[in-house]
Write a structure and sequence with these properties.
Strand content: 5-15%
CATH superfamily: Ethanolamine ammonia-lyase light chain (EutC)
Number of helices: 9
Shape: globular
Number of domains: 1
Structural class: alpha/beta
Order of helices and strands: HHHEHHEHEHEEEHH
Radius of gyration: 21 Å
Distance between the termini: 78 Å
Number of strands: 6
Length: about 270
């Protein structure tokens, strides 16, 4: 007897990816279930962009981990202006600038981490603390500056922060533009010798950091390998290749200690 229901051969493959593949068809459109799921994902992405900042809560979490935290704010006055004026998110307001200038003489760190809300304030809140916990543990022999918690920030805000603190390298952990499968994805942008005017070609990016995407341990490993590579080359960006897959996944701390020891004289 013929079956009334034909098994979908794509169903098994869909278990391995959140991508919208083989959704089926109902006439000239999608099936109702797929259409409703798409609408929900789109609404979640829009909500994530407009979600108010959680930087105060994030600051408390990082301080509870024993980290030295400095809170700064971009030149954008609120989230509405931030979304309309990307340029304002790339510069500090006067109070934040003065605060960093005051702290700068006692710092000059090897690396500064900035945790910024970006276009998804949920991303740094959820993924910033566990990722920083791993990074600080692996970079014990590096001179790490205070964690900068930045509100209403764009990636380039890190350039001004790094220049003011005279940081040798800077990594900004920032909420990425929400997608239809990830409203809370975190991006990491590494810049060697940060200063105002750096371009995106002078940065390295690690994207989609979250448990459902690139896990914390692997993201930290990739960043550690890039940090060591940038230190050797004296630059980041197009000249710096991601060799994390070739590097030993079990010994990122050892690589970091070797690099830190080899450059102890230039701190």
């Amino acid at each position: 007897m013929n079956r009334l229901i034909t098994a979908d051969p794509w169903q098994a493959l869909r278990r391995y990816t959140p991508a919208r593949i083989a959704l089926g068809r109902a006439g000239d459109s999608l099936p109702t279930k797929a259409l409703l799921e798409f609408g929900l994902a789109h609404a979640q992405a829009r909500d994530a962009v407009h979600e108010p900042s959680h930087q105060g809560q994030l600051r408390e979490q990082l301080q509870a981990q024993g980290l030295d935290v400095i809170a700064v704010h971009s030149a954008a006055t609120d989230r509405h202006e931030y979304l309309l004026r990307p340029d304002l998110g790339r510069h500090l307001n006067e109070a934040s600038r003065a605060q960093l200038i005051e702290r700068a003489p006692s710092l000059e760190p090897d690396i500064v981490f900035v945790v910024a809300d970006g276009l998804s304030s949920l991303a740094p809140l959820r993924h910033g603390p566990p990722l920083l916990q791993i990074l600080h543990a692996e970079l014990r022999e590096w001179h790490i500056g205070p964690v900068i918690v930045a509100e209403l920030a764009r990636v380039a805000l890190g350039d001004e922060i790094g220049e003011l603190l005279r940081a040798k390298q800077l990594a900004i952990l920032i909420g990425e533009r929400p997608g239809l499968s990830a409203p809370d994805s975190l991006g990491i942008y590494l810049t060697h010798a940060p200063r105002v005017g750096r371009t995106d070609a002078e940065r390295n990016c690690i994207s989609n950091v979250r448990p459902e995407g690139l896990g914390y341990a692997l993201a930290a490993h990739k960043l550690l390998v890039l940090l060591c590579g940038a230190r050797r080359l004296g630059r980041s960006g197009l000249a710096l290749k991601d060799e994390s897959e070739a590097a030993s996944i079990v010994a990122p701390a050892r690589h970091a200690r070797i690099e830190a020891g080899a450059h102890g004289d230039d701190r």
